[in-house]
Amino acid sequence: MFEEWKGKRVLITGASRGIGAAVALQLGTLGARVGVHYHASGEGAEQVADAIRAAGGDAVTLKGDLSRSAEARRVVDEAADQLGGLDVLINNAGDMLGRAALEEIDDDRYEQVMDLNVRSLVMASQAALPHLRRAGGGTIIHTTSIAARNGGGPGAGLYASAKGFVSTLTRNMAKELAADGIRVNAVAPGTIATDFHARHSNDAHMAAARASIPMGRLGTADECVGAYLFLASEALSGYVTGQVIEVNGGQLMP
């Protein structure tokens, strides 16, 4: 069943670390040609690409600030050019950009959070359409979050709301693009042990999250990979679109 990945052309945004890096490495190992996008973590992106090549795969790195529409379009077009087309787009780039209570939110913070988590995804998806149509169809997968359903923790309101936007847009895009043979789904990670929480969560935040997880521990980036592979595979999920898969150890059971 994994033979379908041989030569598949995949762009993963925000793939220099965490979940994006884990997905990129797995797909590259399976034989996909992978575009590893990054914004600031060039060294991390090159390490991911080198690991894919060492495993016998093919990878290119692409730098760009996806919160800017023109940059998002450029990155997608460059990826398609370097990969020889595009079959799968995984919109994984995003970040909380720090915690802020409602009274602390100003125009700059609002725009930064929404541009990174929403604008980037909308514009990258839009730019991918002609490439996916040229390929005869394909798959778009968004990374949303458990915060889209539970509202997020203290100071995460903007981020949670942006991810709620992503989950809702997933369903609308699935309806709109089905006629083009393009499936659109999303993965919603729960509390995953990546540098995201090292940057944005203190010990109290993490203790509270851990206590709310029936499995009694945080997840890992590698444990999220299977959901992306399932949604990207025509053999496994060819009749699945408009869905959000929760990967959270039971922390949320919708």
TrEMBL record:
* Record keyword ATP-binding present: no
Q: Which GO terms describe its molecular function?
A: oxidoreductase activity
InterPro entries in the record, alphabetically? KR_dom (IPR057326), NAD(P)-bd_dom_sf (IPR036291), Sc_DH/Rdtase_CS (IPR020904), SDR_fam (IPR002347)
- Domain Ketoreductase residues, every copy: 8-190
**What are the UniProt keywords, alphabetically?**
Oxidoreductase
Q: What family is this protein classified in? A: Belongs to the short-chain dehydrogenases/reductases (SDR) family.
- State the name under which the record lists this protein: 3-oxoacyl-[acyl-carrier protein] reductase
